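Margin note from the TA: students keep mixing up input and output lines. Inputs are the sequences; the output is the structure of the whole complex. Example:
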Amino acid sequence: MRLQLLIFVLFANLATSRKHYKGRKYDLTLFVRNHNVSDATFFRLVGVDNTADFNVSAGNTFEHTFEVRRKGFWTLFVEFPGDRYAKSPRKIISRDSYRKWVMEVYYYPGAVGFSEWHKLSRRGEMHIHG
Ligand SMILES: *[C@@H]1O[C@H](CO)[C@@H](O)[C@H](O)[C@H]1NC(C)=O
Ligand SMILES: *[C@@H]1O[C@H](CO)[C@@H](O)[C@H](O)[C@H]1NC(C)=O
């Protein structure tokens, strides 16, 4: 598994694109599996025309289906007390792409580890890496 460790940076800039394009809408379901992040204040998924704030405790998985109209980037932010946050690698998901993606989140001292977004298996089970 390719794990990317990212250090905290100060003062989140969570601006999302305000542009809107007409298009056929489709459903995109994203899962965030929190392995052992216990002190986050909240999580934020930001993607094309969508933002979802949520809490997911260690050992649990958040699931949300978004209505999407166009191809674009998806990023997960993990927010911590004191305006600290960790930001996942961005993933571009298009309308023609797979509809269900999972990202795993790990906690390390001073850093968050994000897996790459990977497809939910056909049986509907999570791929557990490592
Ligand atoms: C997440 O939990 C925090 C602390 O319990 C709470 O203040 C916040 O409103 C929750 N956020 C969401 C999106 O549920
Ligand atoms: C969280 O889980 C990862 C992967 O199992 C592990 O390497 C890491 O040490 C854990 N973090 C803490 C703070 O226990």
